[in-house]
Amino acid sequence: QVQLVESGGGLVQPGGSLRLSCAASGRFLSIEIMGWYRQAPGKQRELVATLTNGGRSAYADSVKGRFTISRDYAKNTVNLQMNSLKSEDTAVYYCNVVAVLSGRQDFWGQGTQVTVSS
Predict the structure, then answer these.
(1) What does the pLDDT look like over 72-107, one tens digit per residue?
(2) How far is residue 26's CA from residue 114's CA, in Å, rounded to a whole number?
(3) What is the radius of gyration, based on Cα positions, of the chain?
């Protein structure tokens, strides 16, 4: 199993910045992908950003140029630097990990609330 601990959510004014972090621990052979998804009230969960072991990143069009995903491979952590935040970024943000145990498995964090409001 993989345990994910998220931190860094909160309330910020439009135009402000927040940094989310997620640390993975547990018994696994490797982590292939780490990323962030979000779910706003009344909407489906959507991809925000992901980063593979090979360093390939992917971003939602709505966050390109404003958000940056990074990983500490030695510590199995993933960070999401969010700049120029907008009200439409308000959502619960979930850390996601694709890890290899006996096979490839998906794991989710408990979620952290990000609220962008004046």
Answers:
(1) 999 999 999 999 999 999 999 999 999 998 899 999
(2) 26
(3) 14
Q: How far apart are CA 41 and CA 90, in angstroms?
A: 9
Give the length of the chain: 118
pLDDT digits (tens, 9 = 90+) for 3-39: 999 999 999 999 999 999 999 999 999 999 999 999 9
Contact 112, 17 (CB under 8 A): no
Q: Which pLDDT band holds residue 1 (cuts at 50, 70, 90)?
A: confident
CA distance 107 to 109: 7
SS3 (DSSP) at 29: coil
Measure the CA dihedral 35/23/107/11, to 10°.
Answer: -60
Is residue 9 within 8 A of residue 93, CB to CB? The reply is yes
Looking at residues 57-85, what average pLDDT do you find? 97
| Strand positions, DSSP E, the chain | 2-7, 10-12, 18-26, 30-39, 46-52, 57-59, 67-72, 77-82, 91-100, 104-108, 112-116
